[in-house]
Specification:
The protein contains 20 helices and 21 strands. The chain is of the alpha+beta class.
Length: 530
């Protein structure tokens, strides 16, 4: 289940991009006391916490003290070593796992009632006919519409063990009686491949949102389908992809790189080097590949882009990537919380580290986006600062640089239309989602009758809808201002895209938005060149 209701500024997007990174496989380390029993520093901290617990004059929540202490320790390391409190750990793990067990719906709570936004594709609810607009009133006879029912308690009712059953009573507009759905809970995929379709007769497109445990499996299915549809070229869209599991990135890079070629190597504290090579015949080793990156493409995304670029495979298109070359391992702390600790640096095949500096502290590190914006780098390749001491040459003679992200082979500037960027943030951040949900609720019978084929002709974003959206934003204390004639087409497109998202899912949503995307247009142009 997922719920989008936040909005991010460009700076927050960059922070989220950095904070949400998971590079490396999870290991269960032995964290028993015997590991640290002879460590006087650990004993000192334990003694202090015990003194506070038993002797301090006022009652103090020592759990919160421990959390603060852990965070302060990690703040003095690097920007990507982070603490995950136990109340957040389950959600973080689920997001990266790639699936969960439940009935498979996204929903809003409207006037204390659970209203389905969408039955997730491939999930149990979609298979038995639950759809957007349905109100789930009862689960196994328990009312879900009481004012004291929290979202967490609803989720607890709808999730459960695989193959267990839950009987739902559903109110659907147009039906006089409650509908009964006996749902067998199952594995519900949390898709990391947002879209895959043909851009032209020869060029296939795949967009990866993040690298979760199932990304390579999703990618493999997508690329096979595209090849069957006639694709001899692939556009791999890694824009705004914050990273994820290193193993998934390696497997995807291996699909394009010939056997025995180096994909990356890592170096840990002791100087031990571990190399990773392409090991199998990939699905697309002999086809053209284009990789789309931007300033928010990070970590595992940069592993893929760097591996292909350093092996002279394909073409990297877009803007300089985020610049994260650190490897984390997730280690449980024994109380349901965990720490993601940097345990190595990774290097691209030519030997370059693409980690940007963090010597000036976390604030400066996470403000890097604004610095790029102000120095003109997002609009001009000539504004990208390179260091000749970090200059490398690929086997094919291409000059590449380390020290901060992957510089694309072909630069495409960021759209300078600030109004479009603001609307994009509203779209991606969730405010359009709730507004469109309320719009669909006004005539569910009509909207649920729309098919993917007749979507374009049937859906019209009127001036009245734009007026209502502007008024809705004012209630949220967000000022959109007057919608000029220049802004209106963009806003209409985004609102229509959100309708597509809620009715048909991310594949149709991304496809619709990509139609006037300048990077996509550039890729299509490049694909047609001999």
């Amino acid at each position: 289940m997922k719920k989008r209701n936040k909005i991010y500024t460009p700076l927050l997007l960059s922070i989220a991009c950095a904070a949400g990174l998971v590079l490396g496989a999870r290991l269960n380390f032995d964290t028993g006391d015997e590991l640290f029993s002879a460590n006087p520093k650990k004993q000192k901290l334990n003694r202090l916490i015990d003194y506070i617990d038993y002797e301090y004059v006022d009652d103090v929540n020592t759990d919160s003290i421990v959390d603060i202490t852990v965070n302060k320790i990690l703040e003095n390391l690097d920007p990507h070593s982070v603490y995950i409190p136990k109340d957040e750990y389950a959600k973080v793990s689920e997001n990266m796992k790639g699936d969960f067990v439940g009935i498979g719906v996204s929903f809003y709570q409207v006037n204390d009632t659970i209203v389905v936004i969408q039955a997730l594709e491939g999930g149990p609810s979609a298979k038995i006919g639950i759809r957007g607009g349905d109100r789930i009133l009862y689960a196994n006879g328990k009312a879900l519409f009481k004012s004291d029912v929290t979202e967490d308690s609803v989720i607890a009712q709808l999730k459960g063990k695989e193959n267990s059953k839950v009987s739902l009573k559903v109110l659907r507009k147009g039906s006089d009686e409650l509908l009964t759905f006996n749902v067998r809970r199952g594995v519900v995929p949390i898709k990391s491949v947002d879209a895959s379709y043909m851009l032209t007769k020869e060029l296939g497109y795949i967009k990866i949102d993040r690298f979760s445990e199932t990304t390579y499996e999703e990618f493999s299915e997508a690329i096979k389908d595209l090849k069957a549809a006639g694709a001899t070229q692939i556009a791999l869209d890694l824009r705004d992809n914050p990273g994820g599991y290193l193993s998934e990135a390696i497997n995807i890079a291996d699909e394009f790189i010939k056997d025995d070629k180096l994909i990356l190597f890592t170096k840990n504290k002791s100087g031990s080097i571990e190399e990773t090579f392409a090991q199998r015949e990939g699905e697309f080793e002999n086809g053209k590949v284009f990789v789309l990156i931007n300033e928010n493409s990070a970590s595992a995304s940069e592993v893929v882009a760097g591996a292909l670029q350093d092996n002279d495979v394909g073409t990297i298109v877009g803007r300089r990537s985020y610049g994260k070359g650190l490897v984390q391992r997730e280690m449980e702390l024994g109380d349901g919380s965990a720490v993601r600790l940097t345990i190595a640096r990774y290097y691209t095949p030519t030997g370059r580290s693409i980690q940007k500096p963090y010597d000036n502290g976390n604030e400066s590190y996470f403000n890097d986006y604004m610095e790029r914006y102000e120095n003109g780098e997002l609009s001009s390749r000539d504004s990208i600062v390179t260091n000749d001491s970090l200059r490398y040459v690929t086997p094919g003679g291409k000059v590449v640089y380390g020290g901060g992200g992957i510089i694309p082979d072909i630069f495409v500037p960021k759209d300078t239309n600030l109004e479009k960027e603001k609307l994009t943030l509203l779209l991606r951040g969730g405010y359009m989602s709730r507004f469109i949900f309320d719009l669909l609720e006004k005539d569910r019978t009509f909207y649920n009758s729309i098919t993917r084929k007749n979507f374009r002709e049937k859906i019209e974003i009127t001036d009245k809808i734009i007026y209502d959206f502007n008024r809705y934003l004012k209630y949220q204390n967000i000022g959109l201002g007057n919608v000029s004639a220049e802004r209106k087409p963009i806003l209409k497109k985004f609102l229509k895209a959100e309708i597509a998202q809620q009715l048909f899912g991310t594949n149709v949503f991304e496809r619709y938005l990509n139609e006037d995307d300048r990077l996509i247009e550039k890729i299509i142009q490049l694909s047609r060149e001999k």
